[in-house]
Amino acid sequence: MKSVAIYNGSPRKKGNTVFAMQYVFEKLNAQPNIEVNIYNIIDFNIDVCYGCRKCMELKHCTNQTDEFEKLFNTVKASDITVWGVPVYWFSPPGITKNFIDRTHAYFACEPMLKNKYAFILNIASDSGFRNSETVMKSWLEWYGADVRESIDIIATEANDIKLNKSKIKQLDEFIFQILKDN
């Protein structure tokens, strides 16, 4: 049985990224031999990285008072990760970037996502896809993940994806890519 973890990187509770990730979750969850979990990064108490660099020696973050490790353990435990990332000023939103920054504690460790697949869904109102994708892809690849697919969907207002058949088709094609080799 393959384990899939879906991560909603949006701070909004009712936006397009939430809809898209829930849609992906429901479609994958209906498949046999796949265990799917969905995580909203905003629901986890994750402090910022303070740049103390003590983690370089310890090989873990000195801050053990928040829920970063709890969420990062779900990433490490999954065979496949799916990242829903809205684009905020040409990059992932602060909550997602904050999570990424906290993984700096493992920068010098062995690639802990080796032999795992990752998929990225970028959602933006009109631009910034490539920069945001570069952040996500370089982070995942540094830790050893094989980024199999990255797609972009333009959506501005709530329900832009939900009410647009061509955008739903993009999601269906994205889901097909997730299922294709897995």
What would you say this structure looks like, in words?
The protein is an alpha/beta fold and 182 residues long. It has a single domain (2-180), classed as Rossmann fold (3-Layer(aba) Sandwich). 37% of the residues lie in helices and 21% in strands. It is built from six helices and five strands. The chain has helices at residues 16-29, 55-58, 68-77, 94-102, 129-142, 165-180, and strands at 2-8, 34-40, 80-86, 117-124, 146-154. The protein has a five-stranded parallel beta sheet, sandwiched between helices. The longest helix is centred in the C-terminal third of the chain and has 16 residues, at 165-180. The protein is globular.
Can you describe this structure in just a few lines?
The chain has 182 residues and is of the alpha/beta class. It contains 6 helices and 5 strands.
Taking the alpha carbons of the first and last residues, their distance comes to 10 Å
CATH architecture: 3-Layer(aba) Sandwich
Q: Biggest sheet, strands in spatial order?
A: 2-1-3-4-5
Domain module tally: 1
Quick one: CATH class?
Alpha Beta
Uncertain residue segments: none
Judging from the principal axes of the Cα atoms, what is the shape?
globular
SS-based structural class?
alpha/beta
Helix content: 25-40%
Strand content: 15-25%
Biggest sheet record: 5 strands, parallel
Give the count of helical stretches: 6
- CATH H level: which superfamily? Flavodoxin domain
- The average pLDDT value, as a whole number, equals 90
Draw up the topology in text:
Elements: E1 2-8, H1 16-29, E2 34-40, H2 55-58, H3 68-77, E3 80-86, H4 94-102, E4 117-124, H5 129-142, E5 146-154, H6 165-180
Parallel strand pairs: 1-2, 1-3, 3-4, 4-5
Helix pairs in contact: 1-6
